[in-house]
Amino acid sequence: MRDAEFFGRWMSAAAAAVEREADRLTELDSPIGDADHGSNLLRGFTAVRAALEAEPPAAPGAVLALAGRTLISTVGGASGPLYGTLLRRTGKELGDAAEVSDEALRKALYTGVGAVAQLGGAAPGDKTMLDALVPGVAALTTSYRAAADAAENGALATVPMQARKGRASYLGERSIGHQDPGATSSALLLGALADVAEAQDGAEAR
Amino acid sequence: MRMLINSPETVVADALRGMAAAHPELDVDVERRVVVRRDARDGGRVGLVSGGGSGHEPLHAGFVGYGMLSAACPGEVFTSPVPDQVLRAAAAVDSGQGVLFIVKNYTGDVLNFEMAAELAEEDGLRVERVLVDDDVAVTDSLYTAGRRGTGATLFVERIAGAAAEEGAPLERVAELARRVNAASRSFGVALGACTTPAKGSATFELPDGELELGVGIHGEPGRERRAMMPAREIAEVAVGAVLEDLAQVGPADGPVLALVNGMGATPLLELYGFHAEVARVLAERGVPVARTLVGNYVTSLDMAGCSVTLCRADGELLRLWDTPVRTAALRWGC
C-alpha cells in the first residue's frame, strides 16, 4: 500500500528529476518550441516541493491535488494546466483514503491521463506528452519500472512524428526529427514514480 | 549574448517595476503580475482583460489605459499567465458590467484563460472570451493548434476598448472584437532568431543570406526558409499572403487598417522603408489604406524582422479606431 508520504516522495523525486534535466528539456524545446520547458517546470515543481513541505497533506489524493493546484498556479503555458490536471484528476480519483493500492493508483492515473487528453484535445501520435503517458500508464499492469521504460520509449518514439498539437505544430514537417519536450518530461514523472516505488518495495522486502 | 538585465529569473518583475515607476496612472502589482488602469471600475464600463507571455512588449501592458485594455496579465517570457493572475485582473476591473477576455490562440493561453473564466463565473462574474487567430502562415488548422494570434491583437484591443469606453454592453463589445478578428490577417518574416533570457542563446540558427517566412512571435522557426530578398520582394510575399487569405472573407468592400510591425530588433529606418513597399503593393492591388501604424507593437524579444497585419474596416470600425486612446504605447486624440 502507498501512503501520503510515498506520494510526497514521488513529487520530491519528480522535482529532483526536473532540476537535473531542466537544461535538456529547455534544449529540446528550442528547435520546436520556445526554449523554456525546463525552466517552467522547474519553477512549478520547486513550488510543489515547498507547498508539500509547508503543509504535508494526510492522504495520497490530497498530495496530488495540492501538487496539481500548485502547478496550475505557477507554471503557466500549456504544461501548467496539463500537468496540473493530470495530478489533480488522479488525486481526485484516489479520494481521501489514507493508503491506496497499486491497482487503485493505476486506475486513477489512467483517468488522469484521460483528462489530459480531453483538455488538450490531443491523441497518441500527435507528438505530445500523451505519447509517453499513454503507453506508460498502460504498462503499469506489469510494473512501475515497465511503465517508466514504456514512457521513455514513447518519448523517443516522438522523434519521427510530425506535431499536430501545441506550438510545435506550427512548424509542420519541420517538427519531424526532434524529440518532444513534453513527452520527455512525462517520462521523467513516471521514472520518478518507479524509483520511489522500487525504493519502498526493496525496503519492505529486506 | 549580452542582455540589459539583472538576472534571467527577474526580467519580468524588473520590467513591471519599471512600468510602475514610469506610469503612475497604472496600478502595477509586481508580485502578482497584474497591470490595471487605476480608473478601471469608474463609470460602469465593461472590463477588458488580456495577457500572454512576456517578450511581446508593448503588448499587452503597454495597451492598458483609456480607450483600450482595463488590465493585462504578463506571464513569464513566452509563457501564458496562470489562471490566478487572470482571475485577479477580472475581479479588479469588473464593475458589474462583465469582463471580456482577449486571448491569443495558443494552447497555453487558451487553457489558462479558460480555467480563469470558469473560476470567475463561479465567483458570479459575467465573462465573454474572444480568440485572436490572424496568422495566415499556419495553413492547416486541422493538423495544428490553429492559427496564431499576432498583430490583430492590437486592432481587437483598440476597437473593443473604444466600444467599452463608450459604454457598450458586454455582448456588443465581444461581437465587435470577434468582427475585428474575423476581418484581420497577418504574416511575419524573420531575419534572425531571438534570444530568450532563460536560454541565453538564439532559439534557432539562421545562416547569413537567408530569411524565415511565416514566423510566429515566439522565436519558433517559420514555415519556410529562403534566400534573403530585398524589402520590395518581402513586401510582395507578405502582403500577397495576407490579401489572398483575406479574399476568403468576402469581396473587398472598403479600406483597410494597416500595421507594419517590427519584431524587436529591426530599426524604424528599415521598417519605414519596408512600409513604403507595403504601401506600393497595396496601391498596385487597388486596396485603399484608411489608417497606418508603423512601429514595434507586437514584438518577439530581440528578433529581427517584421509582420504585416491588415484589417478590413467598415465605417463603424474606423470610427471606433479614431476615438481617443491613452496608453503607454498607443495614444491619440487626448
UniProtKB/TrEMBL annotation, chain B:
SUPFAM superfamilies xref list: DAK1/DegV-like
Subunit structure: Homodimer. The dihydroxyacetone kinase complex is composed of a homodimer of DhaM, a homodimer of DhaK and the subunit DhaL.
InterPro entries: DhaK_1, DhaK_dom, Dihydroxyacetone_Kinase
Keyword Magnesium part of the UniProt annotation: no
Enzyme class: transferase
Coiled-coil blocks: none
Reaction(s) this enzyme catalyzes, per UniProt: dihydroxyacetone + phosphoenolpyruvate = dihydroxyacetone phosphate + pyruvate
Signal peptide: none
Domain DhaK: 7-332
Gene3D superfamilies: Dihydroxyacetone kinase, domain 1, Dihydroxyacetone kinase, domain 2
EC assignment: 2.7.1.121
This protein's UniProt keywords: Glycerol metabolism, Kinase, Transferase
Pathway: Polyol metabolism; glycerol degradation
One Pfam family from the record: Dak1
GO CC list: cytosol
Domain of life where this protein originates: Bacteria
NCBIfam families: dhaK1
Name this polypeptide is given: phosphoenolpyruvate--glycerone phosphotransferase
GO MF annotation terms: glycerone kinase activity; phosphoenolpyruvate-glycerone phosphotransferase activity
A Gene Ontology biological process term: glycerol catabolic process
